[in-house]
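Page 42, continued from yesterday. The earlier attempt failed because a stray header line got pasted into the input along with the sequence. Redoing it now with the clean sequence only.
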Amino acid sequence: MVYRIFVEKKKELANEARGLLKNITDLLQINSVTDVRVINRYDVDNIDKDLFVYAVNTIFSEPQLDITSEDLDMSGAITFAVEYLPGQFDQRADSAAQCIQIISQKERPRVRTAKVYMLYGNI
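This time it went through. Structure tokens are written below.
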């Protein structure tokens, strides 16, 4: 079974999203974009549910800095995701898979990641 988790920095710590919004408004001069959210999506296969739940708060996120959820509320946003193509090296996914393997002392799981961008405003 494939498990999916979305991880987003808390609003006050979301520097990547703030920087992207600044670039959109300053460089591209698209002032109708009012907010940007950047979310990391993790898909994990070949893992049991208990290990996945443990990994959510230890490998995929830092509970004091991040918000995790199993689904996204995409209402009012233009949403798109960017992920590596098959065969391209994804360092974030490889590191997560190695950490899970070290914790479980079992076979390395398959991890895929993507960045989800949510743009708000009159686009």
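Notes: The first helix runs from residue 15 to 26.
Reminder to self: strip header lines before submitting.
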